[in-house]
Amino acid sequence: MSSSMTLTNHTAPNTKHVIPPSVFTLRRTAQLEALYTIIRNKDTSRGDFIFYSDRIIRLLVEEGLNHLPVVPKVVETPTGAQYDGVGFEGKICGVSILRAGEAMEQGLREVCRSVRIGKILIQRDEDTTLPKLFYSKLPQDIAQRYVLLLDPMLATGGSAMKAVEVITEHGVAEDRIVFINLISSPQGLKTFSTRYPAVKVITGWIDEGLNDRAYIVPGLGDFGERRYCA
Amino acid sequence: MSDYLDVHFRDRSNPKPTPLIVIDTKVLTNTILKSHGRPPWYGEDGQSISPAFVIGIAGGSSSGKTHVARQIVRALGSIPAVVIMSQDSFYKKHTPEEVALAFTSRFDFDHPDSIDMDLFAACLSDLKNLQQTNIPVYSFTEHQRLEETKYLYGATIIIAEGILALHDPEMRKLYDLKIFVQADSDLMLARRIARDTKERGRSVDGILEQYLRYVKPSYDNFVLPSSRHADIIVPGKNNAVAIELISTHIRRQLQQRSRHFRQKIAASLKRSLSRGPPRELSIDELGLTVLEQTPQLKGIYTVLRDRTSTRQDFIFFTDRLATLLVEKAMEMLPYREVNIETPVGVQTQGKVIDVESLCGVTILRSGGPLEQGLQRVIHDVPIGSLLVQSDSNTGEPLLFQVRMPECIRQRHRAVNTWVFLLDAQIGTGASGFMAIRVLLDHGVNPAHIIFVTFLVARNVWLENAKRHVAFLDEDGFDDAQQHKAWVVEPGMGQIGDRYYLN
Questions:
Q1: What CATH class is the domain B283-486?
Q2: CATH number for the B4-31+50-257 domain, one of 2.60.120.200, 2.40.110.10, 3.40.50.300, 3.30.420.180?
Q3: pTM, full prediction
Q4: B418, B130 in Cβ contact below 8 A?
Q5: Where, if anywhere, are coiled coils annotated (chain A) (predicted)?
């Protein structure tokens, strides 16, 4: 693991880790990199952090939605022509992992209007150091819905796996869950995908790894802190 | 004549600038007069056909220059846009000493040296070459040039008036027609006394002193001698016949230019027809970048094309699509590398947009539905607008209004500005073509213009040819047929109506 304060290039393709087949990333354009540069920079103001992280979140949600099925649909246009289009199939809902996941809700709602959003609070148990469920409030008919699971940072994968466990306990099939995050660590991706290979993961950027305090590097710090407090 | 826009009223002795409510011919300066929209001023190749027609009007103070200018405008009737530029705007920046003199009426405002002729000629030259210009604003209450400037663009006819309008050789080179308004000195003095005592509350003694000290010498030494450069000398009163002659001349000049324009379009149409039968153009030939056709994108288009979609759905999905389009357009900007430190304490390399300024320009009305997307993607983006409407008879695009953000108004900034040009669809491409010409006129680099649109008709080539046939054949093509030709099939209907009205 590279120690802090060394110059790294987060654009360099990561050859050390193989990306699991259930993981999808956004195309690495200069513009996406510029967005990440803004939210990674410790000197970025809170206003800019919110604006630019929302842009990435919208792109991630758009990508996530493309993994949901559509059905053929023929419509008539205002000019009277027929158009062979597609309709959106099935109902969806969001589930955010408190509290950083909540920050992704606005971006979600800009793409999926008035979507239902469940919430899960998971924290590290002081005794066992394992993630523990403290609170969950999910839509009653969640079993009939596709679930977009929201958590901005995938570090060790502990809380995400706990969240999937809770959601599947409510009757949602694994292959109907799409996990959306902004930045992930290779270790976290590997752990998560090995445990839940049927859950699709949409990640904006795969970083170098974790430091000794389990923070993603180069990362962007504490997402919830920067979004709500900084 | 019609409505008058952006009228400013300045009076040398009035303590406060007064907004002009009643149009008075005497005080109308630096004014754009518009009757109806401006038809294309460029050919098929996008190049301008001819520069603006420039008239210089000189003559002594109170000789009736402005009256002549206004009468010419009136006689010309329905012309697209006329700018009247006054020499008074171009008084030089004064030193504090000069300002003090001016307040005691001891500054010579009638001498050629008091006028910034270089700037006057530069601004006039910009306008003549169909570019934007920013003319200075002079305050007669402060006796000083102000920091602000006034933006002008898009005149077909320019009238430059002032006592010394024919004095400067550089200025004279720019005129297509030079007019000198001749009035007897005693008549001018009489008018001056009448005006200044009644309207400005000045004493006859004061008026005479100023007249003898500055006005008369300037007239004798500079103004009157410049009359030998005039093409025509117009009497300062009873001049209806002279004005009729002048306006007939101008009208004929303008008609010749417009005939030339139509010939050029006809020639280019023949050329394009000789290229063979119409066919669908490939994406590359059209120079397009098309969004990846994902299931979600197809789903969005299905909602937008569906005539039964509710207005709420139409708006929501339009905004969503606009956001995706602008995100895609952002990929075309240049980026450079930058080093940053993250809150975790790690140095890393990233990228940052390498653009001096960035703005949106909306083609009204249907470009409006893309604005929400632009604002979601670019923080505090300045957005200008152009109102382009099709003439219902000819199908010709007409430019009605130009509102440009600051970064385009100033030419030196425009050359470094990237523009997202927004319009809902490209059918014939005529309004987009006009909008691009406006941007180029302002100095925007064509490589810096990114046209963002929901739909493009694949047979743009065919549509373009049809448009020109309709344009050239003045009797043919009834309305219904024309309009049918311009509707994009299967299309989304009138996007502006569906977004704003239905």
A1: alpha beta
A2: 3.40.50.300
A3: 0.82
A4: no
A5: none
